[in-house]
Amino acid sequence: MEGEESPSAQYFRTIAPCSDLTLKNICFKYPGAGNNDVLSNINLTIPAKETTAIVGMSGSGKTTVLKLLLGFYSATKGEIKIDDVTINQILPTIWRKKCGVVMQEGFIFSDTVINNIAPGEDNPDLKELWNAIEMARLDDFINSPPLGLYTKIGLEGNGLSQGQKQRLLIARAIYKNRSTCFLMKRPMRWILSMSS
């Protein structure tokens, strides 16, 4: 977000690849929402190259944790570290570029498969593109129609199943970021569709 960096602050402009992510004694309350914390003393380590799921009831704070991890919110207490560097010391735009994020309401363009995975790129890196497709397990879908990567998709993913939409958004996030950190909102639908 433009203008969120303090002009007097000194930020790290690079992040080591494959870094652990640690939340230590995180508390958070929304401004003007009373005195109660919505998150209280959260401790969590997300190891590099590992899959970590944050699960809970609706309204339990999963989205708030996601937004704290992306630096959209600041904790009222505690710290979030990437290896030994607190998230507040990293230029937010640099950190977010390293985060692949798939929200349940992600947008799918009325365009080809390739342009949905690599939007705005005239010459996408096909090796990285196919890596993202395979990681998202979208390759069976792409190899089925005769036009493959150039198959046209309707607005909002019209013509795709929910699982295919989710996989397309995951492939986009993987391709865009070659991610340090990959965050998903409502991943269980995708995980269940992968196992069927």
TrEMBL record:
GO terms for molecular function: ABC-type oligopeptide transporter activity; ATP binding; ATP hydrolysis activity. Gene3D superfamilies: P-loop containing nucleotide triphosphate hydrolases. Keywords: ATP-binding, Nucleotide-binding. It comes from the Bacteria. InterPro entries: ABC_transporter-like_ATP-bd (IPR003439), P-loop_NTPase (IPR027417), Type_1_exporter (IPR039421). The keyword ATP-binding applies. Residues 39-179 form the ABC transporter domain. The keyword Kinase does not apply. GO terms for biological process: oligopeptide export from mitochondrion. PANTHER family: ATP-BINDING CASSETTE SUB-FAMILY B MEMBER 10, MITOCHONDRIAL (PTHR43394:SF1), ATP-DEPENDENT PERMEASE MDL1, MITOCHONDRIAL (PTHR43394). This is ATP-binding cassette domain-containing protein. It comes from Mucilaginibacter agri.
